[in-house]
Design goal:
By secondary structure, this protein is mainly alpha-helical. The longest helix has 26 residues. Helices cover 64% and strands 5% of the residues. The protein has 4 helices and 2 strands.
Length: 127
């Protein structure tokens, strides 16, 4: 008969305070999960915006108008997240963040909006 401390076949999830958001401790599975929130809120938006609203935007703008570049990049960004429900929910945000890039010509506003979205999503996971 195994006790609960030795049975690690199902990771035990434990949410930790609002300031830690997706800082979910998966005991016995991945101790680095405690550091996921800062990545989700700070690093991921910068990397995704640089890839989509800078690099892919630049490449596509050589072949199509700014308007169509905005549409295509926004759809590609949503499709990157692969889960159908997630794609549908993310599409309006993707168009908004893309619109910021389209209207201003800069990605800094897109990055800030993306960070704000990820921060809110993180906070909602602990409420």
């Amino acid at each position: 008969m195994a006790d609960s401390t030795t049975n690690k076949s199902i990771p035990e999830l434990e949410a930790r305070g609002a300031g830690r958001c997706i800082r979910v401790s998966i005991r016995g599975f991945w101790p680095g999960a405690d550091y996921l929130s800062p990545l989700v809120v700070l690093a991921v938006p910068v990397l995704e915006e640089l890839m989509f609203r800078k690099l892919i935007w630049l490449v596509l703008s050589w072949k199509m108008t700014s308007y169509w570049t905005w549409i295509v990049v926004s759809v590609l960004f949503a499709l990157l997240h692969m889960e159908p429900i997630h794609i549908i929910g993310l599409l309006p945000l993707s168009f908004f963040v893309g619109w910021l890039r389209y209207r201003t010509g800069k990605i800094r506003y897109s990055i800030v909006a993306h960070m704000a979205n990820n921060a809110m999503a993180c906070l909602l996971t602990v409420v």
